[in-house]
Amino acid sequence: MKATAKYFRNCIDALKTTLVGMRITGKYLLQKPITVQYPDERLPIPNRYRGIHYLEQEKCIECLACARACPIDCIEMDAVRHGKELEWISFTLDYQKCMFCELCVYPCPKDCIHMGTEFAFVSYDRSEFVHDLLSYRGMARDAKVRMLEAEEKKKAKEEAKKAKEAAKAAQLAEQEGKAAAGGAQGGPGQG
Amino acid sequence: MLTSMLAASVPQTGTNAINDFLAGVKPDYVPGWAVPLTAIGIAVGLTVAIISVVAMFSVWLERKVAGHIQCRYGPMRAGWHGWLQPIADGVKLLLKEDLVPLGADRVLYVLAPALVLASVLAAMSVYPLAPGFFFADIDLGIFFVLAMTSTTTIGVVMAGWSSNSKWSLYGAMREAAQVVAYEIPLGISLLVPIMVAGSFNLLEVSRAQTGFFGLNWYIWPWINPFMLPAFVLFFIAILAETKRAPFDLPEAESELVAGFMTEYSGIRWSFFFMEEYAAMFLYSVVGAFFFFGGFESPLTWGAAKLAGDGSVLHQVAAGTTLVVKGFAGVFLMMWLRWTLPRVRIDQVMTLGYKYLTPLALVCVLGAGLWEVFLTPILPWRHG
Out of 3.40.50.150, 3.10.150.10, 3.50.50.60, 3.30.70.3270, which CATH number does the structure's domain A53-141 have? Predict the structure, then answer.
Protein backbone atom coordinates (compact mmCIF):
# COMPACT_ATOMS: atom_id res chain seq x y z
CA MET A 1 0.00 0.00 0.00
CA LYS A 2 2.85 2.31 0.91
CA ALA A 3 4.58 1.55 -2.39
CA THR A 4 1.40 2.29 -4.32
CA ALA A 5 0.99 5.63 -2.60
CA LYS A 6 4.60 6.44 -3.41
CA TYR A 7 4.05 5.52 -7.05
CA PHE A 8 1.20 7.99 -7.46
CA ARG A 9 3.00 10.61 -5.42
CA ASN A 10 5.94 10.29 -7.82
CA CYS A 11 3.64 10.84 -10.79
CA ILE A 12 2.08 13.95 -9.27
CA ASP A 13 5.44 15.30 -8.09
CA ALA A 14 6.97 14.86 -11.54
CA LEU A 15 4.17 16.81 -13.20
CA LYS A 16 4.05 19.49 -10.53
CA THR A 17 7.79 20.16 -10.41
CA THR A 18 7.94 20.28 -14.20
CA LEU A 19 5.20 22.89 -14.25
CA VAL A 20 6.96 24.91 -11.55
CA GLY A 21 10.15 24.84 -13.61
CA MET A 22 8.29 25.82 -16.74
CA ARG A 23 6.70 28.75 -14.96
CA ILE A 24 10.14 30.03 -13.95
CA THR A 25 11.68 29.64 -17.40
CA GLY A 26 8.52 31.10 -18.92
CA LYS A 27 8.97 34.18 -16.81
CA TYR A 28 12.53 34.55 -18.08
CA LEU A 29 11.32 33.98 -21.63
CA LEU A 30 9.02 36.99 -21.45
CA GLN A 31 11.52 39.18 -19.63
CA LYS A 32 13.71 41.62 -21.54
CA PRO A 33 17.16 40.15 -22.16
CA ILE A 34 19.87 41.54 -19.92
CA THR A 35 22.63 41.21 -22.48
CA VAL A 36 23.45 44.04 -24.89
CA GLN A 37 24.21 43.83 -28.58
CA TYR A 38 27.86 44.60 -28.01
CA PRO A 39 29.35 46.39 -30.98
CA ASP A 40 26.14 48.37 -31.51
CA GLU A 41 25.34 49.20 -27.92
CA ARG A 42 27.66 49.18 -24.94
CA LEU A 43 27.26 49.12 -21.23
CA PRO A 44 28.47 52.33 -19.53
CA ILE A 45 32.12 52.11 -18.52
CA PRO A 46 33.29 53.65 -15.23
CA ASN A 47 35.29 56.86 -15.59
CA ARG A 48 38.28 55.45 -13.79
CA TYR A 49 38.42 52.41 -16.04
CA ARG A 50 42.00 51.68 -17.10
CA GLY A 51 41.75 51.15 -20.85
CA ILE A 52 43.95 52.19 -23.74
CA HIS A 53 46.00 55.33 -23.05
CA TYR A 54 45.54 58.65 -24.70
CA LEU A 55 47.98 61.48 -24.80
CA GLU A 56 47.44 65.24 -24.82
CA GLN A 57 50.34 65.78 -27.08
CA GLU A 58 50.38 69.61 -27.04
CA LYS A 59 50.89 69.57 -23.29
CA CYS A 60 53.61 66.91 -23.25
CA ILE A 61 57.13 68.11 -22.62
CA GLU A 62 58.92 64.82 -23.24
CA CYS A 63 60.19 64.66 -19.70
CA LEU A 64 60.19 60.82 -19.79
CA ALA A 65 58.61 60.67 -16.33
CA CYS A 66 55.99 58.16 -17.51
CA ALA A 67 58.53 56.00 -19.31
CA ARG A 68 60.66 55.93 -16.19
CA ALA A 69 57.69 55.11 -13.97
CA CYS A 70 56.61 52.20 -16.16
CA PRO A 71 57.54 48.97 -14.36
CA ILE A 72 57.87 47.01 -17.59
CA ASP A 73 59.34 49.68 -19.84
CA CYS A 74 56.68 49.62 -22.48
CA ILE A 75 56.62 53.39 -23.14
CA GLU A 76 59.15 54.84 -25.55
CA MET A 77 59.27 58.38 -26.90
CA ASP A 78 61.46 60.36 -29.24
CA ALA A 79 61.41 64.05 -30.13
CA VAL A 80 63.78 66.76 -31.30
CA ARG A 81 63.97 69.92 -29.26
CA HIS A 82 63.93 73.33 -30.89
CA GLY A 83 64.43 75.58 -27.93
CA LYS A 84 61.32 75.08 -25.91
CA GLU A 85 59.30 73.52 -28.73
CA LEU A 86 59.25 69.80 -29.61
CA GLU A 87 59.36 68.14 -33.01
CA TRP A 88 57.70 64.77 -32.36
CA ILE A 89 59.08 61.61 -33.92
CA SER A 90 57.29 58.90 -31.91
CA PHE A 91 55.54 58.08 -28.64
CA THR A 92 54.83 54.34 -28.55
CA LEU A 93 53.22 52.06 -26.04
CA ASP A 94 53.63 48.32 -26.41
CA TYR A 95 50.31 46.73 -25.41
CA GLN A 96 51.80 43.27 -25.57
CA LYS A 97 53.65 44.23 -22.40
CA CYS A 98 51.44 46.85 -20.80
CA MET A 99 49.62 45.58 -17.73
CA PHE A 100 47.36 48.63 -17.34
CA CYS A 101 48.70 49.54 -13.88
CA GLU A 102 48.19 53.28 -14.40
CA LEU A 103 51.60 54.02 -12.83
CA CYS A 104 52.54 56.11 -15.86
CA VAL A 105 49.68 58.51 -15.26
CA TYR A 106 50.56 59.78 -11.78
CA PRO A 107 54.11 61.12 -12.26
CA CYS A 108 53.25 63.26 -15.30
CA PRO A 109 54.01 66.87 -14.38
CA LYS A 110 51.78 68.24 -17.12
CA ASP A 111 48.93 65.78 -16.54
CA CYS A 112 48.93 64.86 -20.20
CA ILE A 113 48.84 61.04 -20.28
CA HIS A 114 45.55 59.37 -19.33
CA MET A 115 43.93 55.95 -19.47
CA GLY A 116 40.75 55.89 -21.54
CA THR A 117 37.68 53.69 -21.59
CA GLU A 118 38.41 51.93 -24.86
CA PHE A 119 39.32 48.31 -24.20
CA ALA A 120 38.84 46.36 -27.42
CA PHE A 121 41.86 45.98 -29.63
CA VAL A 122 42.29 43.03 -31.86
CA SER A 123 44.73 42.66 -34.69
CA TYR A 124 46.03 40.17 -37.16
CA ASP A 125 49.65 40.93 -36.38
CA ARG A 126 51.57 41.30 -33.14
CA SER A 127 53.34 44.40 -34.38
CA GLU A 128 49.99 46.18 -34.39
CA PHE A 129 49.93 46.02 -30.61
CA VAL A 130 52.64 48.67 -30.49
CA HIS A 131 50.40 51.72 -30.51
CA ASP A 132 51.63 55.16 -31.47
CA LEU A 133 49.89 57.59 -29.18
CA LEU A 134 50.86 60.63 -31.23
CA SER A 135 48.04 62.47 -32.91
CA TYR A 136 50.52 64.29 -35.15
CA ARG A 137 54.13 63.94 -36.07
CA GLY A 138 56.68 66.76 -36.35
CA MET A 139 55.64 70.08 -34.91
CA ALA A 140 52.29 71.55 -34.24
CA ARG A 141 51.56 74.66 -36.30
CA ASP A 142 51.39 76.98 -33.29
CA ALA A 143 54.58 75.43 -31.92
CA LYS A 144 56.23 76.15 -35.24
CA VAL A 145 54.96 79.71 -35.13
CA ARG A 146 56.20 80.08 -31.61
CA MET A 147 59.54 78.62 -32.62
CA LEU A 148 59.91 80.98 -35.59
CA GLU A 149 58.91 83.91 -33.43
CA ALA A 150 61.43 82.91 -30.85
CA GLU A 151 64.10 82.52 -33.52
CA GLU A 152 63.28 85.91 -35.01
CA LYS A 153 63.35 87.49 -31.61
CA LYS A 154 66.66 85.90 -30.97
CA LYS A 155 67.96 87.07 -34.32
CA ALA A 156 66.70 90.59 -33.73
CA LYS A 157 68.24 90.59 -30.33
CA GLU A 158 71.50 89.37 -31.72
CA GLU A 159 71.43 91.97 -34.46
CA ALA A 160 70.67 94.68 -32.01
CA LYS A 161 73.51 93.45 -29.91
CA LYS A 162 75.80 93.38 -32.93
CA ALA A 163 74.80 96.88 -33.91
CA LYS A 164 75.37 98.07 -30.44
CA GLU A 165 78.79 96.51 -30.41
CA ALA A 166 79.60 97.99 -33.81
CA ALA A 167 78.52 101.39 -32.59
CA LYS A 168 80.60 100.96 -29.54
CA ALA A 169 83.61 99.93 -31.62
CA ALA A 170 83.15 102.88 -33.96
CA GLN A 171 82.92 105.25 -31.06
CA LEU A 172 86.00 103.78 -29.58
CA ALA A 173 87.90 104.04 -32.86
CA GLU A 174 86.80 107.68 -33.27
CA GLN A 175 87.93 108.52 -29.81
CA GLU A 176 91.25 106.89 -30.48
CA GLY A 177 91.60 108.79 -33.78
CA LYS A 178 90.82 112.08 -32.06
CA ALA A 179 93.33 111.38 -29.43
CA ALA A 180 95.90 110.59 -32.09
CA ALA A 181 95.10 113.79 -34.07
CA GLY A 182 95.06 115.88 -30.94
CA GLY A 183 92.26 117.99 -32.37
CA ALA A 184 89.06 118.70 -30.49
CA GLN A 185 87.12 119.20 -33.69
CA GLY A 186 84.72 116.53 -34.61
CA GLY A 187 81.13 115.65 -35.14
CA PRO A 188 78.92 112.70 -35.25
CA GLY A 189 80.55 110.80 -38.01
CA GLN A 190 78.51 107.69 -37.97
CA GLY A 191 76.70 106.13 -40.88
CA MET B 1 -14.31 38.59 -57.82
CA LEU B 2 -12.07 37.86 -54.85
CA THR B 3 -14.90 36.36 -52.84
CA SER B 4 -15.87 34.07 -55.67
CA MET B 5 -12.24 33.05 -56.07
CA LEU B 6 -11.88 32.31 -52.38
CA ALA B 7 -15.17 30.44 -52.31
CA ALA B 8 -14.27 28.26 -55.28
CA SER B 9 -14.32 24.67 -54.22
CA VAL B 10 -11.02 22.86 -54.55
CA PRO B 11 -11.04 19.22 -55.54
CA GLN B 12 -8.94 16.81 -53.52
CA THR B 13 -5.40 17.40 -54.65
CA GLY B 14 -2.44 15.13 -54.27
CA THR B 15 0.09 13.15 -56.24
CA ASN B 16 -2.76 11.65 -58.24
CA ALA B 17 -4.06 15.10 -59.15
CA ILE B 18 -0.56 16.20 -60.20
CA ASN B 19 -0.35 13.05 -62.29
CA ASP B 20 -3.72 13.73 -63.95
CA PHE B 21 -2.76 17.33 -64.64
CA LEU B 22 0.55 16.31 -66.21
CA ALA B 23 -1.18 13.62 -68.30
CA GLY B 24 -3.54 16.32 -69.57
CA VAL B 25 -0.83 18.72 -70.70
CA LYS B 26 1.67 16.09 -71.89
CA PRO B 27 2.90 16.61 -75.50
CA ASP B 28 2.83 13.56 -77.73
CA TYR B 29 6.59 13.09 -77.98
CA VAL B 30 6.92 12.56 -74.20
CA PRO B 31 6.64 8.87 -73.32
CA GLY B 32 3.76 7.84 -71.08
CA TRP B 33 5.91 6.45 -68.29
CA ALA B 34 7.49 9.88 -67.74
CA VAL B 35 4.23 11.28 -66.36
CA PRO B 36 3.96 9.34 -63.07
CA LEU B 37 7.72 9.67 -62.55
CA THR B 38 7.48 13.44 -62.90
CA ALA B 39 4.46 13.54 -60.58
CA ILE B 40 6.36 11.55 -57.97
CA GLY B 41 9.38 13.79 -58.45
CA ILE B 42 7.29 16.90 -57.86
CA ALA B 43 5.70 15.38 -54.76
CA VAL B 44 9.08 14.32 -53.36
CA GLY B 45 10.53 17.73 -54.10
CA LEU B 46 7.66 19.42 -52.29
CA THR B 47 8.09 17.09 -49.30
CA VAL B 48 11.81 17.79 -49.10
CA ALA B 49 11.16 21.53 -49.39
CA ILE B 50 8.56 21.49 -46.62
CA ILE B 51 10.78 19.44 -44.32
CA SER B 52 13.75 21.74 -44.96
CA VAL B 53 11.76 24.89 -44.31
CA VAL B 54 10.25 23.41 -41.15
CA ALA B 55 13.67 22.32 -39.92
CA MET B 56 15.21 25.71 -40.64
CA PHE B 57 12.44 27.60 -38.93
CA SER B 58 12.63 25.23 -35.95
CA VAL B 59 16.37 25.73 -35.64
CA TRP B 60 15.87 29.48 -35.60
CA LEU B 61 13.02 29.16 -33.10
CA GLU B 62 15.07 26.89 -30.88
CA ARG B 63 17.95 29.34 -30.75
CA LYS B 64 15.65 32.25 -30.03
CA VAL B 65 13.76 30.35 -27.31
CA ALA B 66 17.01 29.14 -25.77
CA GLY B 67 18.39 32.67 -25.84
CA HIS B 68 15.40 34.36 -24.34
CA ILE B 69 14.95 31.75 -21.61
CA GLN B 70 18.55 32.49 -20.62
CA CYS B 71 17.92 36.25 -20.81
CA ARG B 72 19.95 36.71 -24.00
CA TYR B 73 18.86 37.54 -27.53
CA GLY B 74 19.99 34.51 -29.53
CA PRO B 75 20.98 35.11 -33.14
CA MET B 76 20.53 38.78 -34.05
CA ARG B 77 22.90 39.67 -36.86
CA ALA B 78 21.85 37.70 -39.96
CA GLY B 79 18.65 39.33 -41.10
CA TRP B 80 15.89 40.68 -38.88
CA HIS B 81 16.43 39.08 -35.45
CA GLY B 82 18.67 36.54 -37.12
CA TRP B 83 16.04 34.83 -39.24
CA LEU B 84 18.62 34.13 -41.98
CA GLN B 85 20.90 32.37 -39.51
CA PRO B 86 19.82 28.80 -40.45
CA ILE B 87 20.57 29.56 -44.12
CA ALA B 88 24.02 30.85 -43.19
CA ASP B 89 24.55 27.74 -41.08
CA GLY B 90 23.40 25.53 -43.94
CA VAL B 91 25.86 27.13 -46.34
CA LYS B 92 28.63 26.68 -43.79
CA LEU B 93 27.74 23.02 -43.32
CA LEU B 94 27.68 22.43 -47.07
CA LEU B 95 31.17 23.86 -47.41
CA LYS B 96 32.64 21.82 -44.57
CA GLU B 97 34.98 18.94 -45.18
CA ASP B 98 33.24 15.59 -45.39
CA LEU B 99 35.13 13.22 -43.13
CA VAL B 100 34.85 9.47 -42.79
CA PRO B 101 36.89 8.26 -39.83
CA LEU B 102 39.57 5.64 -40.37
CA GLY B 103 38.22 2.23 -39.44
CA ALA B 104 34.60 3.24 -39.94
CA ASP B 105 32.29 0.95 -41.85
CA ARG B 106 32.11 3.21 -44.86
CA VAL B 107 28.93 1.92 -46.46
CA LEU B 108 26.83 2.04 -43.29
CA TYR B 109 28.44 5.30 -42.24
CA VAL B 110 27.40 7.03 -45.45
CA LEU B 111 24.00 5.38 -45.56
CA ALA B 112 22.94 6.15 -41.99
CA PRO B 113 22.16 9.90 -42.27
CA ALA B 114 20.34 9.31 -45.55
CA LEU B 115 18.18 6.62 -43.94
CA VAL B 116 17.45 8.85 -40.97
CA LEU B 117 16.30 11.72 -43.16
CA ALA B 118 14.45 9.44 -45.57
CA SER B 119 12.36 8.05 -42.72
CA VAL B 120 10.95 11.46 -41.79
CA LEU B 121 10.43 12.30 -45.44
CA ALA B 122 8.44 9.10 -45.86
CA ALA B 123 6.39 9.92 -42.77
CA MET B 124 5.76 13.39 -44.14
CA SER B 125 4.24 11.97 -47.32
CA VAL B 126 1.00 10.89 -45.64
CA TYR B 127 0.41 14.19 -43.84
CA PRO B 128 -2.41 16.25 -45.26
CA LEU B 129 -1.40 19.90 -45.55
CA ALA B 130 -4.99 21.06 -45.90
CA PRO B 131 -8.30 19.17 -46.02
CA GLY B 132 -7.93 19.06 -49.78
CA PHE B 133 -4.18 18.78 -50.22
CA PHE B 134 -2.03 15.76 -49.45
CA PHE B 135 0.47 13.59 -51.25
CA ALA B 136 -1.00 10.26 -50.24
CA ASP B 137 -4.24 9.70 -48.34
CA ILE B 138 -3.95 6.25 -46.83
CA ASP B 139 -6.34 4.70 -44.32
CA LEU B 140 -3.57 3.52 -42.00
CA GLY B 141 -2.08 7.03 -41.86
CA ILE B 142 -0.97 7.18 -38.24
CA PHE B 143 0.22 3.57 -38.36
CA PHE B 144 2.44 4.45 -41.31
CA VAL B 145 3.74 7.57 -39.55
CA LEU B 146 4.70 5.63 -36.42
CA ALA B 147 6.34 2.89 -38.48
CA MET B 148 8.36 5.36 -40.55
CA THR B 149 9.51 7.51 -37.64
CA SER B 150 10.66 4.36 -35.84
CA THR B 151 12.86 3.57 -38.81
CA THR B 152 14.97 6.53 -37.71
CA THR B 153 16.28 4.33 -34.93
CA ILE B 154 17.81 1.93 -37.41
CA GLY B 155 19.68 4.80 -39.00
CA VAL B 156 20.85 6.04 -35.61
CA VAL B 157 22.06 2.58 -34.57
CA MET B 158 23.79 2.22 -37.95
CA ALA B 159 25.50 5.57 -37.44
CA GLY B 160 26.62 4.65 -33.95
CA TRP B 161 27.91 1.24 -34.93
CA SER B 162 29.66 2.22 -38.13
CA SER B 163 31.45 5.24 -36.63
CA ASN B 164 33.88 2.93 -34.83
CA SER B 165 33.88 5.18 -31.78
CA LYS B 166 32.93 4.31 -28.22
CA TRP B 167 30.89 7.47 -27.79
CA SER B 168 28.87 6.79 -30.90
CA LEU B 169 28.26 3.22 -29.86
CA TYR B 170 27.03 4.26 -26.41
CA GLY B 171 24.73 6.81 -28.00
CA ALA B 172 23.32 4.27 -30.39
CA MET B 173 22.73 1.70 -27.63
CA ARG B 174 20.92 4.28 -25.56
CA GLU B 175 18.81 5.31 -28.53
CA ALA B 176 17.83 1.71 -29.17
CA ALA B 177 16.93 1.07 -25.52
CA GLN B 178 15.04 4.34 -25.27
CA VAL B 179 13.02 3.88 -28.42
CA VAL B 180 12.09 0.31 -27.52
CA ALA B 181 10.89 1.56 -24.15
CA TYR B 182 8.92 4.54 -25.43
CA GLU B 183 7.38 3.18 -28.63
CA ILE B 184 4.99 1.20 -26.42
CA PRO B 185 3.43 4.07 -24.44
CA LEU B 186 3.47 6.22 -27.58
CA GLY B 187 1.43 3.72 -29.54
CA ILE B 188 -0.85 2.85 -26.66
CA SER B 189 -1.63 6.43 -25.69
CA LEU B 190 -2.48 7.18 -29.31
CA LEU B 191 -5.00 4.34 -29.18
CA VAL B 192 -7.28 6.51 -27.03
CA PRO B 193 -8.10 9.11 -29.71
CA ILE B 194 -8.01 6.40 -32.35
CA MET B 195 -10.72 4.55 -30.42
CA VAL B 196 -12.80 7.69 -30.07
CA ALA B 197 -12.47 8.57 -33.75
CA GLY B 198 -12.70 5.02 -34.97
CA SER B 199 -10.11 5.65 -37.66
CA PHE B 200 -6.35 5.60 -38.34
CA ASN B 201 -6.74 8.16 -41.10
CA LEU B 202 -5.49 11.63 -40.17
CA LEU B 203 -8.12 13.39 -42.30
CA GLU B 204 -10.93 11.32 -40.81
CA VAL B 205 -9.79 12.06 -37.26
CA SER B 206 -9.62 15.75 -38.05
CA ARG B 207 -13.06 15.72 -39.66
CA ALA B 208 -14.53 13.96 -36.63
CA GLN B 209 -13.54 16.94 -34.46
CA THR B 210 -15.35 19.59 -36.50
CA GLY B 211 -17.63 21.63 -34.34
CA PHE B 212 -18.67 24.91 -32.90
CA PHE B 213 -15.58 26.99 -32.08
CA GLY B 214 -13.38 23.95 -31.57
CA LEU B 215 -15.44 22.58 -28.70
CA ASN B 216 -15.25 19.10 -30.21
CA TRP B 217 -11.50 18.78 -29.85
CA TYR B 218 -10.67 15.41 -28.35
CA ILE B 219 -8.63 16.95 -25.56
CA TRP B 220 -11.77 18.31 -23.81
CA PRO B 221 -12.84 16.19 -20.86
CA TRP B 222 -16.48 16.10 -21.97
CA ILE B 223 -15.44 14.08 -25.04
CA ASN B 224 -13.47 11.56 -23.02
CA PRO B 225 -11.86 12.29 -19.63
CA PHE B 226 -9.01 9.86 -20.32
CA MET B 227 -7.85 11.98 -23.24
CA LEU B 228 -5.87 14.52 -21.19
CA PRO B 229 -3.74 11.95 -19.33
CA ALA B 230 -3.28 10.12 -22.63
CA PHE B 231 -2.02 13.35 -24.17
CA VAL B 232 0.46 13.90 -21.32
CA LEU B 233 1.78 10.36 -21.79
CA PHE B 234 1.93 10.87 -25.56
CA PHE B 235 3.85 14.11 -25.13
CA ILE B 236 6.43 12.56 -22.80
CA ALA B 237 6.80 9.65 -25.19
CA ILE B 238 7.40 11.89 -28.21
CA LEU B 239 10.02 13.82 -26.25
CA ALA B 240 11.89 10.56 -25.80
CA GLU B 241 11.25 9.44 -29.38
CA THR B 242 12.71 12.62 -30.84
CA LYS B 243 15.70 12.48 -28.45
CA ARG B 244 14.84 15.84 -26.94
CA ALA B 245 15.94 16.96 -23.49
CA PRO B 246 15.29 15.75 -20.82
CA PHE B 247 15.60 12.49 -22.77
CA ASP B 248 18.51 13.46 -25.04
CA LEU B 249 20.66 10.60 -23.83
CA PRO B 250 21.68 9.37 -27.30
CA GLU B 251 23.36 12.76 -27.86
CA ALA B 252 24.15 13.72 -24.26
CA GLU B 253 26.78 16.27 -25.25
CA SER B 254 28.24 16.54 -21.74
CA GLU B 255 28.75 12.80 -21.38
CA LEU B 256 29.09 11.32 -24.87
CA VAL B 257 30.52 14.27 -26.86
CA ALA B 258 27.64 14.11 -29.35
CA GLY B 259 26.55 10.51 -29.01
CA PHE B 260 25.78 8.72 -32.24
CA MET B 261 26.76 11.73 -34.38
CA THR B 262 30.14 12.36 -32.77
CA GLU B 263 32.07 11.44 -35.92
CA TYR B 264 29.82 13.18 -38.41
CA SER B 265 30.48 16.58 -39.89
CA GLY B 266 29.18 18.90 -42.55
CA ILE B 267 26.08 18.03 -44.51
CA ARG B 268 25.79 14.49 -43.11
CA TRP B 269 25.64 15.87 -39.60
CA SER B 270 23.03 18.40 -40.70
CA PHE B 271 20.85 15.49 -41.89
CA PHE B 272 20.65 14.25 -38.31
CA PHE B 273 19.86 17.76 -37.20
CA MET B 274 17.14 18.21 -39.79
CA GLU B 275 15.68 14.84 -38.85
CA GLU B 276 15.44 15.84 -35.20
CA TYR B 277 13.60 19.07 -35.91
CA ALA B 278 11.41 17.61 -38.62
CA ALA B 279 10.48 14.71 -36.32
CA MET B 280 9.60 17.18 -33.58
CA PHE B 281 7.28 19.00 -35.94
CA LEU B 282 5.76 15.80 -37.36
CA TYR B 283 5.04 14.36 -33.92
CA SER B 284 3.59 17.70 -32.81
CA VAL B 285 1.30 17.63 -35.82
CA VAL B 286 0.25 14.10 -34.88
CA GLY B 287 -0.60 15.47 -31.45
CA ALA B 288 -2.53 18.30 -33.08
CA PHE B 289 -4.47 15.85 -35.26
CA PHE B 290 -5.37 13.41 -32.51
CA PHE B 291 -5.89 15.66 -29.51
CA PHE B 292 -6.26 19.26 -30.62
CA GLY B 293 -8.68 19.09 -33.48
CA GLY B 294 -6.32 18.86 -36.46
CA PHE B 295 -7.54 21.40 -38.98
CA GLU B 296 -10.38 22.50 -36.73
CA SER B 297 -10.14 25.81 -34.95
CA PRO B 298 -12.33 28.89 -34.59
CA LEU B 299 -10.48 30.27 -37.62
CA THR B 300 -11.22 27.24 -39.81
CA TRP B 301 -14.78 27.04 -38.56
CA GLY B 302 -15.34 30.70 -39.40
CA ALA B 303 -13.73 30.35 -42.84
CA ALA B 304 -15.88 27.34 -43.65
CA LYS B 305 -19.02 29.20 -42.56
CA LEU B 306 -18.01 32.33 -44.49
CA ALA B 307 -16.78 30.89 -47.79
CA GLY B 308 -18.12 27.37 -47.76
CA ASP B 309 -16.72 23.98 -46.93
CA GLY B 310 -13.74 23.04 -49.08
CA SER B 311 -13.25 26.56 -50.45
CA VAL B 312 -9.82 28.08 -50.96
CA LEU B 313 -10.24 30.27 -47.88
CA HIS B 314 -11.19 27.23 -45.84
CA GLN B 315 -8.17 25.29 -47.09
CA VAL B 316 -5.79 28.14 -46.32
CA ALA B 317 -7.27 28.65 -42.86
CA ALA B 318 -7.03 24.93 -42.15
CA GLY B 319 -3.42 24.71 -43.31
CA THR B 320 -2.46 27.75 -41.23
CA THR B 321 -4.21 26.27 -38.21
CA LEU B 322 -2.29 23.03 -38.57
CA VAL B 323 1.08 24.76 -38.92
CA VAL B 324 0.38 26.99 -35.93
CA LYS B 325 -0.63 24.00 -33.81
CA GLY B 326 2.43 22.06 -34.93
CA PHE B 327 4.79 24.85 -34.02
CA ALA B 328 2.98 25.38 -30.72
CA GLY B 329 3.91 21.78 -29.90
CA VAL B 330 7.49 22.36 -31.07
CA PHE B 331 7.67 25.45 -28.88
CA LEU B 332 6.42 23.49 -25.89
CA MET B 333 9.13 20.88 -26.47
CA MET B 334 11.77 23.61 -26.64
CA TRP B 335 10.45 25.24 -23.51
CA LEU B 336 10.77 21.90 -21.71
CA ARG B 337 14.25 21.35 -23.09
CA TRP B 338 15.50 24.58 -21.59
CA THR B 339 13.72 23.91 -18.29
CA LEU B 340 14.60 20.36 -17.32
CA PRO B 341 18.00 18.77 -16.77
CA ARG B 342 18.82 15.50 -18.47
CA VAL B 343 17.66 12.39 -16.63
CA ARG B 344 19.84 9.34 -16.05
CA ILE B 345 19.53 6.32 -18.33
CA ASP B 346 18.06 4.17 -15.53
CA GLN B 347 15.54 6.91 -14.79
CA VAL B 348 14.61 6.99 -18.47
CA MET B 349 14.01 3.24 -18.38
CA THR B 350 12.05 3.47 -15.12
CA LEU B 351 9.84 6.22 -16.47
CA GLY B 352 9.20 4.34 -19.68
CA TYR B 353 8.53 0.88 -18.33
CA LYS B 354 7.19 1.47 -14.83
CA TYR B 355 5.20 4.66 -15.29
CA LEU B 356 4.25 5.45 -18.87
CA THR B 357 3.40 1.97 -20.10
CA PRO B 358 1.05 0.94 -17.23
CA LEU B 359 -0.58 4.37 -17.12
CA ALA B 360 -1.14 4.28 -20.88
CA LEU B 361 -2.79 0.87 -20.52
CA VAL B 362 -5.04 2.24 -17.76
CA CYS B 363 -5.97 5.16 -20.02
CA VAL B 364 -6.86 2.84 -22.88
CA LEU B 365 -8.97 0.65 -20.60
CA GLY B 366 -10.78 3.61 -19.07
CA ALA B 367 -11.35 5.30 -22.41
CA GLY B 368 -12.65 2.05 -23.88
CA LEU B 369 -15.12 1.57 -21.05
CA TRP B 370 -16.25 5.20 -21.41
CA GLU B 371 -16.74 4.74 -25.14
CA VAL B 372 -18.71 1.54 -24.71
CA PHE B 373 -20.96 2.52 -21.80
CA LEU B 374 -21.18 6.30 -21.61
CA THR B 375 -20.88 7.59 -25.17
CA PRO B 376 -24.27 6.17 -26.23
CA ILE B 377 -26.01 8.25 -23.52
CA LEU B 378 -24.02 11.48 -23.95
CA PRO B 379 -26.09 13.76 -26.22
CA TRP B 380 -23.17 15.92 -27.43
CA ARG B 381 -21.36 12.88 -28.81
CA HIS B 382 -23.95 12.44 -31.52
CA GLY B 383 -23.66 15.80 -33.27
Answer: 3.30.70.3270
